[in-house]
Amino acid sequence: MFETASPSPADGAPAIAVHHLKKRYGPFTAVDDVSFEVASGDFFAFLGPNGAGKTTTINTIVGLANFQQGNVRVFGHDVVTEYRRARAYVGVAPQEFNFDRYLTVEEILVYQAGYFGVPAEEARPRARQLLQQFELWDKRGKDVSKLSGGMKRRLTLARALIHAPRLLILDEPTAGVDLELRLELWDFLRALNRQGMTIFLTTHYLEEAEQLCNRIGIISHGKLVALEDKHSLLSRLSQDRLEIMLTAPVRELPPPLTEYDVLLELDGRKLVVRNASPRDLPRILRALEARGHELADLAIQRRNLQDIFLELTGKQP
Amino acid sequence: MNAVGLSTLINRELRRTFQIINQVIWPPLVSTLLYVVIIGLSVGSRVESVSGVPYVTFLIPGLIALTVIEASFAESSASLFQHRFMNSIQELLVAPLAYWEIVIGFVAGSVARALLLGNLLMLFLPAFTGRWPANFPLYLVLMVLIAVLFSSIGMIMALAAEKWDHIAIPQTFVFMPLIWVGGAFSPLALLPAQIRPLAYANPMFYVIDGFRYAILGVAEAPVWASIGITTLLAATSLGVVLRLFQVGWKLRV
């Protein structure tokens, strides 16, 4: 779809390498000793409640925030000492709109390309392609203030892509976007990732992270509380919950139920097994049957990323 | 060096000037010419020659300098503050532009606006004085230095300001009084002898006096002192802006 124009990265270097990052605002520590890496080609979701430190972390990566400790590298280039090389790789779509009010929609893309060293004659066809892709071509001569919120969101993404970056950083890319457009954007981002673009996104829509990303980091109160492959995070933390209703109460838990975290409800007629998987169900039921218990009802509650998020952060996303 | 990036930024600044040309070029041009006509020609006709030239001739370099000062200050301060206010400065900060390239881009845009306005005024010079600048290269160099000085001061104010009216405070209460009492409208020789030494301590006097020398060939202070002080002030203020951008003061959180 878009050939990347930014320079070739150092061999094998991760797209993002954050080591022991600490960022304070006066006495408040916004990011506290955070370390993580995002491999080249990853689709990485960075999750956390409001004020957890997501945007601050992004700002340190893209050069909008100074920091007190640690180091941040983009494709092997230090964002402080080699900031120009590091920035050349990155396209960023911030959460807040920050367009130049003296430029039209098309000029916003052409000038942004220019700041990245792409001459206007090269940038114009690319701007046309992106504006058509995001259904903004007929708005190309308009002032940004005339665009709807969804259009501005698409323009933010187009601007981030205009210089064909290798790393795309998206801070809440689908905030305020309707469902249809969100699904289109998801498809578009998947396609970019398939072509090799590394994507790092923050989102309040956990479904978005679950659908799109292959790795997940969760930050809470400035500290990284989870960092792993999406599937292993889900399988490690999202053990399902079995709810077994019996016709008569259980007085004493038979083995192997004693190995599990079991909560007795409804005077012992309901067993809530909180750390079992559906694979464990036959042996649990056999044990209950052996003690003469009769099954009245059975439910398996599957946990999703939202449950894990709430457990790790104790907050709404 | 990111030459394309730098030229894009300069282009953006010039584009901004031409987009608001009815606000930033024609009004100061007309008002300065009105000053020349009303103060210089009507009131000035009743004043004997000043520093060996007619009053209107003496007045014009001061007015051109004042216009260059106001244009360069207004362009850089308004453009940068607006960028900060709207957060669009982030478009520049995330790009692979060196901090000095961003500074040079803003300064060059402001200098261009100031030079455009100053030289448009200069075209009227022969109509009022019957002469062109006495030392054209020096005239151009000093005009650029004055514009660099005040566009740098404008950028410092745009970084320091939290609200629009903060920008005007030092301009109104510090620089303009220093310029007005610094020989823009009358020679220091006309001041009472007791306060004259104080007036010579005003650096703006040398900025205006050197510029007047370049146009008229007459000066109150040694020309080397005026050139030296103007260069020193421009270099210092530019150095301060470069340092502020390097550390990201009020730019990076």
Give your account of this protein's structure.
- The complex is a heterodimer of chains A (317) and B (253).
- Helix content of chain A is 32%, strand content 26%.
- Chain A has ten helices and 14 strands.
- Chain A has helices spanning 54-62, 83-88, 105-115, 120-133, 149-161, 179-194, 206-212, 230-237, 281-290, 305-313, and strands spanning 16-25, 28-38, 43-47, 69-74, 77-78, 90-93, 167-171, 198-202, 215-220, 223-229, 241-246, 262-265, 270-273, 295-301.
- In chain A, α6 (179-194) links the parallel β7 (167-171) and β8.
- The model of chain A has no long low-confidence stretch (mean pLDDT 87).
- Chain B is mainly alpha-helical and 253 residues long.
- Chain B has twelve helices and no strands.
- Chain B is globular, with a radius of gyration of 19 Å.
- The two termini of chain B are 25 Å apart.
- At the A-B interface, α1, α2 and α3 of A face α1 and α5 of B.
Q: For the largest beta sheet of chain A, what order do the strands appear in spatially?
A: 6-7-8-3-9-10
- The helix-strand sequence of chain A is EEEHEEHEHHHEHEHEEHEEEHEH
On the 0 to 100 scale, the average pLDDT of chain A is 87
**Proportion of residues in β-strands of chain B:** under 5%
Largest interface, C-beta closer than 8 angstroms, per-chain residues: A-B, 33 and 30 residues
Record field, number of beta strands of chain A: 14
Taking all Cα atoms into account, the compactness measure Rg of chain B is 19 Å
Class per helix and strand makeup of chain B: mainly alpha
Helix/strand class of chain A: alpha/beta
What best-fitting shape of chain A do the alpha-carbon axes yield?
Answer: elongated
> Helices and strands of chain B, in N-to-C order?
HHHHHHHHHHHH
> What oligomeric state best describes the polypeptide chains here?
heterodimer
Q: Overall 3D geometry of chain B? A: globular
